[in-house]
Model the fold of this input.
Amino acid sequence: MNAEDLIMISVDDHLVEPPHLFDGRLPAKFADRAPKVIRTSKGDDVWTYEGAVIPNIGLNAVAGRPREEYGIEPTAYEEMRPGCFDLAERIKDMNAGGMLGSMCFPSFPSFSGRVFGASEDKDLALAVLQAYNDWHIEEWCGGAPGRFIPMAITPLWDPELCAAEVRRVAAKGVHSITFTENPATLGFPSFHSPTWDPVWEAVCENDVVVSIHLGSSGQLAVTAPDAPIDVMITLQPMNICQAAADLLWSRVFKTFPDIKFALSEGGIGWIPYFLDRLDRTYDMHHLWTGQDFGDRMPSDVFREHFLTCFIADPIGVKLRHDIGMDNIAWEADYPHSDSSWPNAPEELAAVMAGVPDDEVNKISYENACRWYDFDPFAHRTKEQSTVGALRAEAAGHDVSEKAYDQGRYQRRKGIDIGELAKRATA
Amino acid sequence: MNAEDLIMISVDDHLVEPPHLFDGRLPAKFADRAPKVIRTSKGDDVWTYEGAVIPNIGLNAVAGRPREEYGIEPTAYEEMRPGCFDLAERIKDMNAGGMLGSMCFPSFPSFSGRVFGASEDKDLALAVLQAYNDWHIEEWCGGAPGRFIPMAITPLWDPELCAAEVRRVAAKGVHSITFTENPATLGFPSFHSPTWDPVWEAVCENDVVVSIHLGSSGQLAVTAPDAPIDVMITLQPMNICQAAADLLWSRVFKTFPDIKFALSEGGIGWIPYFLDRLDRTYDMHHLWTGQDFGDRMPSDVFREHFLTCFIADPIGVKLRHDIGMDNIAWEADYPHSDSSWPNAPEELAAVMAGVPDDEVNKISYENACRWYDFDPFAHRTKEQSTVGALRAEAAGHDVSEKAYDQGRYQRRKGIDIGELAKRATA
Done:
């Protein structure tokens, strides 16, 4: 399929929270304690909450930036593309990138929202979390109907509250929560504990997918303190196999046969090997470990419960039938450093060369719609939803590197523009 | 290729050390402090060394045992197949399993041999380690010429001693050392430190492959204390990707362009995804992280430096050209629980169905011979080396479950034989 003819829905993007997010959304008694943005003496914008300081990491807001300028230093709002945090600009960037729909994970609260729970005052924590969810649902997603798959954070510190929040946001049309890869590493009971059953009951009752994003265990795949960052960047996606194995062998799927999980930003090319490994482990070991899936194999169970996704994964596309055509979605990862915005359509079309159209459609948008109960076509026709149609709407929108205050960033970070120019033309 | 026509060399097997291993091999002053086998009050045989007690784990010596009886409890010698620890019996088992050659990792010293270094007395530690290596080279491998790829342990606690031991054993014809996936997690400097340069110099000078076995980091892939053991069994092989990434991005390959590593028991089906991920990471990030491979991509560098292996990995075989036909070897994992002994030839032939003979040969034995500088055909012809020929030599050798004291094991472990029989016939 040509890039311009694709319909693209991303199941893994990110928003950088704007400073006004909590304005007017908290009860008066908590208003002064809402998370706030302050500017540091170094010129970085950071969030503060209950004594904690949480920067916006540069590498998480690099859309449109030249690769020489990627980095993990904190950053400031005017050094990012406005599409990171401004809804109207995000829609323009989505259109320019040909992206019909998007599911946006949180940034400063962490993927699992555990930052909110760090407060001793759990009433405050819940109020802040609910304010966040309401802003996300009403202002971010609600401000652009049919463009966002809404996603909510849950109060991990209390499974009953989690379940109540699932029900509260489900009533507002939310079919996705961002959870954690591993509650145990965050200090909570593991996936093997019945502690979480109220949450699993609530998500099953409301057709809510539990989306678990790489890194949401609070533990990165770091081999050694002095390992170059390339090691962590390489390993992070596949590391989500730990969550997949943990859940697969847990009591969760046996007790909640309708539950759905998404492995967000995990890639897909390793999954056929992983499924073989699951099945061989079952074959060789279940007679003494006591695992029992009846007449199914673990790979069948995986396909019943997991949505996977990829950015550009040639091996995964080659092996798509070994994964499961109903289990694969596409993701953009805007505005993170793995994203190919605004050229993702061309990248995806190249990776999908030779794939039949009906399979392309499943991967590029249909599976996302079905898993997340998302219907963008209630708001625009399919003809209006293609990459070509969206890009036409974005005509004139500046996708160049000039669209944010790059010069300030370069000066602050000591980047030598002349040197960059020399490398770019070398 | 038919199973009977295969020539099979395994690059990953295990030996259970026999009690007499150190007899007469230590200087008189250390003889009393040699590691010793004692029988516990529960009937387990355990090694003792400098106050430490190290059991033989049942799951690591289950060849020939019915799967219902697999388990991680310690075990005793007469409850194992003698082929685990007795050379003559091992050769019979190899013949019955159609296996021409084998490289045997240590058991009680740990894969990396770190157990020996636990002694405060480093003179003792080195004497014990060298005695081990000499026994392995002279008695185990030397007792059956052309049947074993010799492998040595190195004194990790001192890189100069490591280098000296590499040279000492290389002079005896050894082209493989068992190292660690991650020295950092064992409390040593990481792969990113020049500390190890003397070792790397020594292995390069002597064409010695650094074999790193899953689990040799001292850290298993465990998600939570209450996770079922199936999780760890599933995750352990692919976890070796951490070592591969750590080394790939380290200074090691840049400084020692001739160095060779083997990823032992890591499987192969995940590697094409991993190579794509390496290349994408390089493409997206090297301009700011400073990585530089000249005109090569990381996937090229991987293929220059890594041997991989598998037991039975259908996806990996399907993707063999995406891995590299010169980078794949077969392994048996005898007598561990992942092994299909004595039916590995039939399993491998099934997984290789449709693969051209020249590619089968590379995987089943030629790559192993080349990487490890091993020439079994100096001792027997190729015609004498096939599965069919070896099995003919083993005619009459009992491969049934009766070949060890299964009844004692069942009584000790409280296994209900009647219940097992019912399940087996159900």
